[in-house]
Automatic annotation (TrEMBL):
This is DUF1320 domain-containing protein. Residues 126-151 are annotated as: Disordered.
Amino acid sequence: MSYAAVTDLELRLGTQTVIELTNPKRRADSINTPVADAAIADATGIIDSYIGQRVSLPLDIVPALIKTLAIDLAVYYLKVKLGNTGNTDNATTKLYDDAIKHLERFAKGDTSLGLHIVEDNADDDVNQGSDHADISSEPRQFTRNKMGRLT
């Protein structure tokens, strides 16, 4: 499951910019969707490599921050990996560096991404619970012997 879509890239950068980034060697009138999808897949893979130790994958719900990080990483990959080095600017590199730093902090447990954390309690002696209820009470006050013939 990808954390972003081509339409997310278009919303962030504009359609014309995405067309140019996904078609670096030629003029084109449309987005090269497989190239954009590959950059998004690369970004998703990087994110999973950092968050996979702390959360259960795949994510059921993608938090907004994860989507933003995926877009930032995908844009960087489109600009750098595909030979668009002339289009790489300091802002794009900074977004990439910031995204990686944020993921590293999450992997260390120093920050949150709004995700449910998987705890590894396999070595704990704590009872993790069960699917039945334990009911206890005081001994009966009114027994057949105490009530006599009223029962």
